[in-house]
């Protein structure tokens, strides 16, 4: 038996870029719940090298010789950070993605699964959005730099496939949250930002102040659910076209409802207050998971209330080590 064969299945060395972040940590947990003998995971963090640097990226790939890559690494931030630094988000993410994909091609990686975001979709569009609509118009102006850099991964995937036969694909998660998120008050996303604010409000005996009207709608996916779906895509999904990884449309909730769930999880005595002088961002980004449901009709997502309670519990227990 060839050394790359284990019980009839090839050995996989799976390199996870951005492996210390929210989704990477969740994949660590999910792969322990559903282990495969032939899979070895290597989780990279920024300490392993700067993926914006071609030489550093090449050294990482030559060192680990991955057969598969889950590409999570990105320069990310919340609404207000994106609005201030669109050029930085554009340039840095283009550099990271090009280095990861080109080294994957050069070293003969069999499959790359990159992580996009629903912000890649056009600002002016019909709903629900689906995988065919990515390039149908400009993205929302607030974060166009990040959005175009992420869109280009889809363009690169198809170009590498057309020119070199590479199996590079991408997933498009809706708003992810969970343990190991970025809970920074300035540039965190909605749920982690609100969790940190609620933690402070609880300490100070004040209400939770929510920026905006509380009316915008979002689909939130718990990081562990997303990680399980990532493993499905890595192991089973054969298309180059991306796939949306999202809860069902019926699970869409308003920011106000989410804030209330967070306030309840902290048992805040003074509830929530809406600051409607602050910007709302896009009103909705409803995504269709019809393609995913075609593959996994019976996949069960954790109820949002329970997932938020687990995340609040993690933040309370890990306040000192949480990114904030």
Automatic annotation (TrEMBL):
Q: Which PANTHER family match?
A: GDP-L-FUCOSE SYNTHASE
- Which pathway does it operate in? Nucleotide-sugar biosynthesis; GDP-L-fucose biosynthesis via de novo pathway; GDP-L-fucose from GDP-alpha-D-mannose: step 2/2
Q: What is this protein called?
A: GDP-L-fucose synthase
In the UniProt record, does the keyword Transport occur? Answer: no
Tell me, what's a Pfam family for it?
Epimerase
User: Which top EC class is named for this enzyme in its record?
Assistant: oxidoreductase
Chain segments annotated as transmembrane: none
Alphabetic keyword roster: Isomerase, NADP, Oxidoreductase
Tell me its family.
Belongs to the NAD(P)-dependent epimerase/dehydratase family. Fucose synthase subfamily.
| Entry EC no(s) | 1.1.1.271
Protein origin, superkingdom: Eukaryota
Q: Name one GO molecular function term.
A: isomerase activity
GO biological process: one example: 'de novo' GDP-L-fucose biosynthetic process
Every copy of the NAD-dependent epimerase/dehydratase domain together lies at 14-241
Which taxonomic lineage does the organism of this UniProt entry have? Eukaryota, Metazoa, Ecdysozoa, Arthropoda, Crustacea
Record's function text: Catalyzes the two-step NADP-dependent conversion of GDP-4-dehydro-6-deoxy-D-mannose to GDP-fucose, involving an epimerase and a reductase reaction.
């Amino acid at each position: 038996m060839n050394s790359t064969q284990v019980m009839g299945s090839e050995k996989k060395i799976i390199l996870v870029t951005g492996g210390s972040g929210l989704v990477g940590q969740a994949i660590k947990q999910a792969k322990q719940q559903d282990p495969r003998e032939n899979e070895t995971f290597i989780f990279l963090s920024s300490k392993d090298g700067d993926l914006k640097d071609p030489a550093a990226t090449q050294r990482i790939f030559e060192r680990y010789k991955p057969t598969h890559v889950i590409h999570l690494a990105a320069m990310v931030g919340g609404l207000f950070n994106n609005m201030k630094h669109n050029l930085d988000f554009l340039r840095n993410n283009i550099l990271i993605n090009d280095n990861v994909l080109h080294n994957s091609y050069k070293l003969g990686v069999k499959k790359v699964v990159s992580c996009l975001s629903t912000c890649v979709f056009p600002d002016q569009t019909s709903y629900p959005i689906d995988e065919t609509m990515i390039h149908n118009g400009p993205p929302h102006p607030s974060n166009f730099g990040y959005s175009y850099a992420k869109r280009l991964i889809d363009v690169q995937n198809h170009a590498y496939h057309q020119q070199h036969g590479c199996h590079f694909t991408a997933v498009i998660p809706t708003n992810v949250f969970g343990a190991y998120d970025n809970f920074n008050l300035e540039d965190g996303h909605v749920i982690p930002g609100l969790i940190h604010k609620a933690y402070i409000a609880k300490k100070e005996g004040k209400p939770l102040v929510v920026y905006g009207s509380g009316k915008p709608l979002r689909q939130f996916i718990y990081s562990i659910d997303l990680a399980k779906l990532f493993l499905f895509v890595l192991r089973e999904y054969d298309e180059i076209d991306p796939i949306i990884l999202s809860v069902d449309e019926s699970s869409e909730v308003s920011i106000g409802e989410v804030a209330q769930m967070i306030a309840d999880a902290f048992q805040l005595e003074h509830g929530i207050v809406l600051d409607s002088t602050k910007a709302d961002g896009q009103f909705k980004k409803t995504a269709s998971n019809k393609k995913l449901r075609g593959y996994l009709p019976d996949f069960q997502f954790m109820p949002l209330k329970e997932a938020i309670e687990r995340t609040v519990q993690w933040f309370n227990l890990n306040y000192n080590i949480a990114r904030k």
